[in-house]
Specification:
Blueprint lengths: L18 E8 L3 E2 L8 E8 L2 E5 L2 E5 L3 E5 L5 E5 L3 E8 L12 E4 L2 H10 L11 H15 L6 E2 L5 H12 L7 H7 L4 H12 L3 H18 L4 H7 L5 H12 L3 H6 L5
Helix pairs in contact: 1-2, 4-5, 7-8
Amino acid sequence: MGIHPDLTLHPGEPLRQPIVGFAKTQSKNTANNRHSHQCAQLFHVVAGSAAVETEFGTYFVPPERALWIPPGIEHQGRYLQETEIRFLYFEPGSVAALPDRPQVLQVTHLLRELILEFMSYARVETVAGPAARIGGVILDQLRMLPAAPLQLPMPKDKKLRDVCERIVRCPAHVPALKDAALQCAISTRSFERRMKDETGLNYRTWCRQVKLFRALELLACGRSVSDVSYKLGYEEPSAFVSTFRKAFGVTPGRYFASPSPD
């Protein structure tokens, strides 16, 4: 099934239908301006990968995952390679039961096929009839999908955020805890407490999460496990694979090769 030509044009706001589809391909190494929508948005990556920055942190969206963005949340997408995306926009009244914060979701085979089928209809056909019923099933599926651990929370305190942003830019060289605290001109104990209060993670766990996110970006771009391991400062590829498996439940190769479960 193909994408209906209607859906290659951005729908604009306010929406004219309860659920509106939009298909787009973003070029490698491009980014959107920071913006928000009156409606809710499902950001489904079919191929490629993206990192979406919000006030709640950065969310990594690899192939066959989707990012749920509630109404009014400012966000900016960065595209790490050429990325094929299927967007669904929802009237706020229809998604009251869904999360009020962004969340990465695992896309099942069923939801993927429902989205593709919905995208084959003209927008005027989605108010009633088969397309409208498909839209209703999509909403039912979204309420049941498990969240994927693909969020990197960022602190709001400026000094902490400056340190964290430097680590995000270069995760292979993570400063020791005492050095990170020194950069913020506070004690080690105060630094740890503020990190935990603002991100929900201690410093060591947060830094490990940064490395895992960068690993996902690099692996999605086709880099080898050994290359990624070396680039992120692991002594051996086996140490990287072990850390990755503990975080995601599978090895790096299986993470991208295996289809999402139903």
